[in-house]
């Protein structure tokens, strides 16, 4: 169906946008705690690092995904209107399918990588710079090798033309989904380690003050 061709083009363009601009949301997730003066309170609280970091991660990823799904729903509605005029049949799941399979792994990877970089450098600008460089490397058209986290298929083409690339794209999406999960666990461990260091400094300062 022609809907699938347009859905792939949709995923291409949305993936390019979210592949970089997502970092402006996720790159300051922990920095905001520091800016608002709540990081020391959070670091010294008995809160599970998986709950804290994982909760923020889910919020960032789901927010971006819901926005894209709304846009996908709008695109589907437009095609529904066109189908009434032309009489052509359409796939009502195409835009949602490619959102989940193509775009979600990109969202997850950008969020996970920016979390790790943010904790390591204690800065929100560094993740933006590093991911901009990686984004530039990853947006080559029809070059969906494993080292590139953005899927490109920038044309309206029948399934027969897309089929030879299907396996490569599938492997790419699985790889970045798994890598995103690994990076998230790394971010959790790094954040917990930093929290331990802050907690130690807080206790030392408290002892000095009490004396």
Please specify the SSE layout and strand pairing.
Blueprint: H1 2-21, H2 23-26, H3 31-35, H4 39-44, H5 49-86, H6 94-121, H7 125-138, H8 159-210
Helix pairs in contact: 1-5, 1-6, 5-6, 5-8, 6-7, 6-8
Can you put this structure into words, describing what you see?
With 211 residues, this protein is mainly α. Helices cover 79% and strands 0% of the residues. The protein is built from 8 helices and no strands. It has helices at 2-21, 23-26, 31-35, 39-44, 49-86, 94-121, 125-138, 159-210. It starts with a helix and ends with a helix.
List keywords for this structure.
single chain, 211 residues, mainly alpha, 8 helices, 79% helix, 0% strand, elongated, disordered C terminus
- What is the H/E string? HHHHHHHH
Low-confidence stretches: 202-209
Number of helices: 8
Q: What kind of sheet is the major sheet?
A: none
The helix-and-strand class reads mainly alpha
Estimated helix fraction = over 70%
Rg from Cα: 21 Å
Judging from the principal axes of the Cα atoms, what is the shape? elongated
Quote the beta fraction. under 5%
- Oligomeric form: single chain
Distance between the termini: 76 Å
Q: Average the pLDDT over all residues and give the rounded result.
A: 83
The beta-strand count equals 0
